[in-house]
Amino acid sequence: MTSRAAGTERRGAGHALRITVDRDRCIGSGQCVMTAPGVFTQDDEALVALLPGQEDGAGDSRVREVPLACPVQAIVITED
Amino acid sequence: MTETDFRRTGSEAPAFPQDRTCPYQPPKAYTEWRGESPLTRVTLFDGRPAWLITGHAEGRALLADPRLSSDWGHPVFPVVVQRTEDRGGLAFPLIGVDDPLHARQRRMLIPSFGVKRMNAIRPSLQSLVDRLLDDMLAKGPVVDLVSAFALPVPSMAICELLGVPYGDHDFFEECSRDFVGAATSGEADAAFAKLYQYLHGLVAKKQAEPGDGLLDELIARQLEEGGLDHNEVVMIALVLLVAGHETTVNAIALGALTLMQHPEQIQVLLDDPAAVPGVVEELLRFTSVSDYMVRMAKEDIQVGGTTVKAGDAVLVSITLMNRDAQAYDDPDVFDARRNARHHVGFGHGIHQCLGQNLARAELEIALGTLFTRIPGLRLAVPLDEVSLKAGHDAQGPIELPVTW
């Protein structure tokens, strides 16, 4: 469960993830931060934000669980 | 369907909700409703038939579905317990309204319950927990864990966060308890009126002499700028104060009880402090303090091949969703090492608990510290002598005599 493992898996699969977050839907539950703290944070308004440079979700192996963990479908992950 | 309609037709489906006999296991009847179908038919106290959603996936989809309403003010919104009739037409912010009003109210409060803010109050929660345990240990066994520990932790925490003087706690704890647990609607109305009056006065006082709690922020940012009126601020204060009192107390007490009844799993907490958050998530899944959520269908909705019709009462069984074998292996087993992800102990969808990160911080610190300091904590009476709250209430023990 390290970011290195996720990176390896990502390279092995030959494609990267792209994460989009919808601050208008966000209710600040923090499920994303709890599930993948290497990728997600909350801003000053306690709404979803990506950590700098984490748009590809490489920083946390559990990042794929986040869309389902979010109570309001504010996070979408697509694979390029 | 109107009230008279369903009284006339009657419903032969089993009564809902029912009382637990074991504090942390669903009532026997509930377990019989777990089957092929993700929903079943039940009857509410007033004879109204309702759908009870029992499937984890279906329940999550419905809780996130805008076709289900939480508008308590709707003339035929389902009533599970005759709690209060005379609120002077006041709406319940957050919990009893739909979007967009709900979103507007919630947005104002989200920053006060954010992950970073809740992590920042952990040191003060830790010293509060340490102090309460010092007192408890000095008093010596036998102690009622509810009044000595499980209640004062969330009560003091929510008071500090809101900026409500804890010195008044006997008064509003009693009002809060009577409001949600009263035997008659008259008693509940009286408790509501007392609490409303108290908070009305407090908001007025804070307008004159501002403090530094969440209520003071709401007054400064919203009331003064016209985003909220006086009644809304008072009602938000009331909802948060009651929610802060009637939920986490049960989660701490029921969590401690579950651990005491599974002593081999206490070791998981003691061996590794990093395991505590996972144990808390499993306790939230396993105990399901909030047994059900109440909704009403605004449109026809297909659920697992069945049509839930517009106007139908929909009860979402948090207890049975958290025990769905399709979502969790051996769902009736408490396993402190389990990954209890996607449990619905805090609900799901736009109404998912606003205070969940406060509750997590409280539970992790309270339960982690309780068993670290008193690893031999155990029940002082047989399990079947533990008095329990009624099925329609937040689930938990009324008293919990413990020894060590």
UniProtKB/TrEMBL annotation, chain A:
It comes from the Bacteria. PROSITE patterns: 4FE4S_FER_2. Its cofactor is [3Fe-4S] cluster. GO terms for molecular function: 3 iron, 4 sulfur cluster binding; electron transfer activity; iron ion binding. Coiled coil: none annotated. Keywords: 3Fe-4S, Electron transport, Iron, Iron-sulfur, Metal-binding, Transport. Residues 17-45 form the 4Fe-4S ferredoxin-type domain. InterPro entries: 3Fe4S_ferredoxin, 4Fe4S_Fe-S-bd, Fe-S_cluster_ET. The keyword Iron-sulfur applies. Ferredoxins are iron-sulfur proteins that transfer electrons in a wide variety of metabolic reactions. PANTHER family: FERREDOXIN. This is Ferredoxin. The lineage of its organism: Bacteria, Bacillati, Actinomycetota, Actinomycetes, Kitasatosporales.
From TrEMBL, chain B:
It comes from the Bacteria. One of its GO terms (molecular function) is oxidoreductase activity, acting on paired donors, with incorporation or reduction of molecular oxygen. Gene3D superfamilies: Cytochrome P450. It comes from Streptomyces griseofuscus. It holds the Pfam family p450. The keyword ATP-binding does not apply. Residues 1-23 are annotated as: Disordered. Residues 1-10 have a biased composition (Basic and acidic residues). Keywords: Heme, Iron, Metal-binding, Monooxygenase, Oxidoreductase. This is Cytochrome P450. Belongs to the cytochrome P450 family.
